[in-house]
Amino acid sequence: MATTYDLLGSAVSDGTVTALTVSAIPQTYDDLVVFMTGYSLGSSGSTTGIMRFNNSSATIYDMQNMLLIDNSNQNDAETVAATAYTVISWPSNTASTFTEWGYLQIDVPNYTKANFGTDKHTAMTVQYLNNRDSQTTDGATGLAGWGLELDAAITEVNWVGHYDGGNVNNGGSLKVYGIKNS
Q1: Which of 6-10, 108-112, 168-172 is least confident?
Q2: Which end of the chain is less packed: N or C, by CB atoms within 10 Å?
Q3: What is the spatial distance between Cα 81 and Cα 38, in angstroms, rounded to a whole number?
Q4: DSSP strand E in the chain: where?
């Protein structure tokens, strides 16, 4: 049987909001896949996007290892404040054109914590891609490993904003899919 992705919730920006949230995630799946697409309407160039789970700003985001490669550089992201995950080099574009676009995919196995007993650690795999035509680097791609120390299942995914304060572009979206293992 082929793996299917069931859409559990989505939030789409109209260009006037700084954050997107998908909540009321059911606990009937084995894994989650989270997609964030779009860019900030803040300063031109790039910014840092901020992501949380269950809208928690507690120190539960215990690691971030990102390798980001662009046209001329290779950057290892620093370990950041443990109150959120940060997505470096997220596109920021005041002109509201589609030439600046970011794509983030987060694979979250066992988000309900049903199979780990008292272990509250969740390890996630993150894939990142952006297109920044106005930059000399012309885009970047990266991989990350994120760890999460939650006492409960993930019930909400939050894209909480950008360091530059810009709104999420019109059409930018956060989508959460559930996967059942057969």
Answers
A1: 108-112
A2: N
A3: 24
A4: 6-12, 20-22, 31-38, 45-53, 61-70, 74-76, 85-92, 100-109, 121-132, 140-149, 157-162, 173-179
